[in-house]
Amino acid sequence: LAYKWFDKRPEKTPADNVADLLWVVQSAASIARDLPEATPFELWRELDVSVDRAALEGGFNRLGASFGVSMIERAMIDGIGKAAGLGFRAMLDKDTLGLRPAEIFPELAGTGIDDALPSAPLKALHLRHTIGMVDPLTAADPFEPVNDGLPETLEDYLRHDGIRYLKIKVGGDLSADIARLEAIADLLAKTGHTIAATLDGNEQYKRLDDFAALMEAIRSRASLAALYKATLFVEQPLERSVALSGTLDSKALGVIGLPLLIDEADGWTSAYRDAIELGYRGVSHKNCKGVIRSVLNAMLAARHN
Predict the structure, then answer these.
(1) Residue 99 contacts by C-beta under 8 Å, 6 or more apart in sequence?
(2) pTM given for the model
(3) What domains can you pick out in the chain, each with its CATH number?
(4) How far is CA 80 from CA 74, 240, 261, in A?
(5) SS3 (DSSP) at 98
(6) Which residues are registered as beta bridge partners of 222?
(7) Tens-digit pLDDT profile for residues 37-60
């Protein structure tokens, strides 16, 4: 994952971003070493609170704090699993980690792990292929080919790798976004395959109305009707500082017509519950935000569904 994802402040250089991430991991490790003996869940809970506070005091942000916690959390889970000879799902089943979800979210008192997660790890899953803003769609697009025999354009991936799920990024420029989406839709129509897609707003909007204007433009074009119908949800259209600042406007949501998820705004353990209350309907999982947090989020989703 690109380091800039955690902190998009333009005044931060790449070297600054890397230094911040190293600092927060080192801080998390230092805090963890000083924690008293406890269950893994209790250690994680204390670490989560302490690193969040330290990151804010140190001028970093809460999403970055989550990264620091996640690195220690994953090391802890890995070590315990190896010592016990158990995989992650088995540790959850046997309560090896001592999870107490209702201590974080009381509404989860009647919700179990089995309500939120498969009874056994999946043996296979579909990849969701990301189409970035500058990724080449076809060989006619301007790019420097690697020529290593592997797919390089979206057209290549669709043809050779059998991709069936796409994550399409939009950039906050309505006319440019529409033109690119039309090019993608035209390419997908030629594949003859059933494709499902998601849109990633990538924090490009300060106002939900502005994103709704893009969605209204999409829905009004016959050239994008099939792509809109194939779109499952939208991730993080609003910039993280405003994403959870208030209830989502119902009129704008009606224009958008798709569930909204948080991603970068999922910077602290209760963020998804906060988001649900504001009108969001999902959250993205990333290991860098925390495995235990994602288990709790999955349970919250199961509870509210």
Answers:
(1) 41, 92, 113, 292, 295
(2) 0.93
(3) 3-99 (no CATH), 128-304 (3.20.20.120)
(4) 10, 34, 32
(5) coil
(6) none
(7) 999 999 999 999 999 999 999 999
